[in-house]
Amino acid sequence: MKKLTALIASVIMVAVCITGCGVNPAATQQKVKLSSELSDLKDSMEKEGYIDKDAVETGMTPAEQKNTEGKKKEYGGYLLIGAEEGVRYSFQYNESSVNVELYRYDKLNDTAKKIISDVKSKGEFVLAEENEAIPAYLSKNEKFLMIYQDSSSEKKNKNKMKEAIEYFENYGAKDDGKDNKKETKAEETTAPETTEK
How far is CA 1 from CA 5, 8, 75, in A? Predict the structure, then answer.
């Protein structure tokens, strides 16, 4: 009986040590390798405060599996929406959990075309296997897609989400190295020249 009690006590001590002295997953996370384009977008959104500097970064990497012919093929991840790459950032804002997913498009396959078309027309898309509509946003140049999730009903959170979406939707609004947004504002404020007769 004493041996059993000692065994139970040691199991409890190990369990307490594992949960209480656990390693912070954010501290051990590995950096996700991103293309320069997606990295620039992420850095830009982080600089503006729309992605937390301490956010947990998770690559939306497809899983490698064998297909029906026994050949290895990648499934899931960013391929589900026809993207070239994708990444998720998880963090807390105003005591609420926030998830920001960023995807980059390049060569558009049928899946990508359908997702982009649905987001442009409806502001959401439905995955083939799912029956739930997912709200999403496109950058101005339609090269990036963002999913921003924050279930908080706090005004502060809703305002932050609105600002992040506006910033993201205007991202890529560049033509010949000039920012279209700034260029448009400059045109609006410049009064037309008048010639006196």
Answer: 6, 11, 52
